[in-house]
Amino acid sequence: VRGLKTAYKGEVYERIWSELNKLTQYEWYEKFLDSKDFGVPHSRCRLYIVGIKKVYRKRPFLWPKSQELIGTCMDLIDDSAKGQQLNASHSCVVRTWNLPPNIMGLVEFNSASRTFNAWGKNAQEIEPHEWHRVVKRDVAPCMIASSRLYVNHLKRYVTPKECFRLQGFVSRMR
């Protein structure tokens, strides 16, 4: 993840590079890639490190080229699906932020609550001109295990099938 380069003031990353560079028979390449740059309507930026043994390298290593996004995250949401309803704490957040129920899009509460406080005396309502910072219509926020994406206009969380679709998997689930 992006924080690997800055964790412990960059010491973790430097240690990893130091160890990799001891493997002198390899050439090392690194780059941040985000799934949204490869046709998937889901943002998940990750650091990729590729090692190629020098004796096997016949041509320069090339990173994959970006692909145009051909749809939005909302194209992958099934309006007729029956997802789990909003839990009590997230209901409180939606009320505090004063998100209108008709705004179409996905909300990832963990990252959004870092920008807009939803708890205690510092809780803040989100102004209409800032709703787009919380409710995403084109590219889904990064999905993490400890938080689920909420489909605001359908008042439910995304289903497992929709999670697979948002991550670029062609759905064969029933």
Can you give keywords for this protein?
4 helices, two-stranded antiparallel ribbon, 20% helix, three-stranded antiparallel β-sheet, 174 residues, alpha+beta
Overview in brief:
The chain has 174 residues and is of the alpha+beta class. Helix content is 20%, strand content 15%.
What does this structure look like?
This protein has helices spanning 11-21, 88-97, 109-115, 160-166, and strands spanning 26-34, 45-53, 106-108, 149-151, 156-157. It has 174 residues and is an alpha+beta fold. The strands form two sheets. The chain has a three-stranded antiparallel beta sheet. It is elongated and about 60 Å long.
Please give the count of helices. Answer: 4
List the helices and strands in order.
Answer: HEEHEHEEH
User: First CA to last CA: what distance?
Assistant: 32 Å
Query: What class would the helix/strand composition place it in?
Result: alpha+beta
**How large is the share of residues in beta strands?**
5-15%
Give the radius of gyration: 20 Å
Q: How confident is the prediction overall: mean pLDDT? A: 87
How are the strands of the biggest sheet laid out side by side?
A: 3-4-5
Question: What is the overall silhouette?
Answer: elongated
Number of strands: 5
Helix content: 10-25%
Low-pLDDT runs of 5+ residues are: none
Largest sheet, strands/sense/barrel: 3 strands, antiparallel
Please specify the SSE layout and strand pairing.
Layout: H1 11-21, E1 26-34, E2 45-53, H2 88-97, E3 106-108, H3 109-115, E4 149-151, E5 156-157, H4 160-166
Antiparallel strand pairs: 1-2, 3-4, 4-5
